[in-house]
Here is the input.
Amino acid sequence: MKKEDTVKLISAEGFEFVISKEAAMVSQTIRNMLTSPGGFAETEHGEVTFPEISTTILEKICQYFYWSLQYSRGKETDFHIEPELTLELMMAANYLHT
Amino acid sequence: MPVLRSRVIPPTKPEIEPLKHPANKIEPATPARTWDTTRPASSGDDDGGDAGRKRKLDVSENLLGLEGGDREGFLNLRSGKKVIKRIGETDGGNSVDGKEKEKGKEKMDFEEVRMLREVSKDGVDVDKLDIKQNADGSCNEKRRRRFGREEKGKAKLIDEHSTVNGSEFINLDLELGTKHSEENVGSVSEPRKEQRVDKKSSVRLSESRMEQFRDIARQNASKFAYFNVEENHLSDDNERLVVADGEVEREIEDWPGPFSTAMKIVRDREKKLNGGQRIGSLDPKKKSNSSILWIPRKGQRQGPKLIIPSLKELSMKILVQNADAITSLEHVPDALRHKLSFMLCDSRQMNSHFLNLLFSGSPTEIRLRDCSWLTEQEFTKAFVSCDTKNLTVLQLDRCGRCMPDYILLSTLASSLNSLPSLTTLSICGACRISDVGFKALVTSAPALRSINLSQCSLLSSTSVDILADKLGSFIQELYINDCQSLNAMLILPALRKLKHLEVLSVAGIETVTDEFVRGFVYACGHNMKELILTDCVKLTDFSLKVIAETCPRLCTLDLSNLYKLTDFGIGYLANGCQAIQTLKLCRNAFSDEAIAAFLETAGEPLKELSLNNVRKVADNTALSLAKRSNKLVNLDLSWCRNLSDEALGLIVDSCLSLRMLKLFGCSQITNAFLDGHSNPDVQIIGLKMSPVLEHIKVPDFHEGPLHYSSVLSSL
Here is the structure.
């Protein structure tokens, strides 16, 4: 993947997840951050930091992005979520509008 | 000043004779007038047909300065007008105003006449009066009534029944096109002398009149076939209001204002469409009455938009299944808590474990839409551990089982100021709370702005008084649906004190009458944003009239099951309330044209419209919807069987904001519409085997404590 097509999501612990822009745009919040005119640092560097979201949750969210792209292309599978993660995942998903 | 006719009636024969001659000079221009002049001279019997003659008699005898010309004025009509049989009292000889009813002994159902009277002296323009036959008595007050001139082609709805004892007016609609109807007004019986004629549509009428009456009878027969117990008690109720300020009643199309213009436009449009050939019929074999042009989309539609389940929903589903495993709801935002508790209550998995989670800590909002599983002990235990100082919203619906007075006193109302920040409280279904408990509750929640007391059957008008006294200047939302012990007129004085009220729901309270509505909106109407009047079946067009006059900011109006409302009511609403966003009509008797005219006039801001079981809805409404309703999101056209595939196709393809369309009971809709419409976003519910419960309105979990204002707005 070229650098221009990717976005870096950084968790609270500092882990960096590099995903494609198309996948990141599944989240309405990230989409607004990356596309809004306003000279945000995120737009320029292509990096978004989430100090409240832990690494395991952010990883799960990135998995969801790719699953969602797959689903929209027709491959409809189940997305499994470990029950221990659900509460935090729900709150993160609520924040990210996804 | 008003001259009572009764004192001047000379019933003697000889006097009648000379008077007839002047009358005979008048050449009638309408058939009705021949009736007047062909009446035989025999008097003495106070028969129905003699009314006019007697009146003339009266007038001349009154010596009110009327000359012979005046009497002629009775029958001196403009061409094309109908004659009014009787005149009212004269007023200084200038014009006849006011109206008198005959004290008839029988039902005067089928007679309506109009009279034009020309003032002789001043040459002042004619007052047109409309006098109704009233079974009961005559009106003491004088009223000036002006009526529309020309006949239009349509019949108006007639809603009134007449009873012998009832003091009502009968709104009739002559097929020949005189449209007239009036609100129900009370009338005070005035003792009349016996000579006062008994106007029957009897002997002396000409054939044309008889035909008219027969037509009227045909129209009204079905109405009388339906017996309504309530109609017999009408005279006891204070429903019929006297229009004391001399208002006039006009035909719809002669009203000033946009509604009448819209009606004309709608009628013209319909004539144009129907005059042309039948177009737009998809299936030539099928008998389609629609004249709407709509071409369904050819080819396969992509199918409904693929809805990808969001991560939030997925995780919430799993949470709901494993609710017992949740250990804490700390840091979970209120909207998510509400959604979780909503889903748990719906699936009956709500239990005291989750309840304790909700109550633990210092919660700000708690919403439980179903507390029927909750016992008194569990509730007390959970509540005691709750720190209520930050609680702004508390919803404990269907809490009847766990909330008798003593529990209330030991929990919610345990001390003065035990709920210091509480803004919104809902205790629907708290059927065991009495006035005592309610008083304690009110004193412990001094910041209350919205209160929902639906189905609290033990609360009486004392409670409403207490509410008005303690919180009267703050309360902005009040719901008292189905509170059976509340009598509308008894609580009216208290309700009038709620000056900042924005939302009032009195659904299901049968004692709500026109009088109540008038009294309430005159005091509080300027702030009203939402009025729910479902099932208050005694209401008539008069209520809509006063609402339109006094509630300009009305956003939501619910008129379900108010069968007495007629097109006039919709007309008032269209002219007066131009900001309505949600309108719920169900089983109302409005006509297609009236609804279409309403949409043309005031339909732009509409977001949610329900025409459930408004059976007359047809092409006119469809055309107006397509033209005007750009913002419409929710539309309910269930049971509207006069709507064709084309009409619905036009609506769906034109209302681009439409997301939900309900079509329960519309068996006339075929796949031509379902597969042929081009709107990808709309969800059509009620026809095929689609999941039905998904359309039920889910509350907005992000909504604040108040619907129309922010809590911080200072009063």
Remarks:
- The first helix of chain B runs from residue 13 to 25.
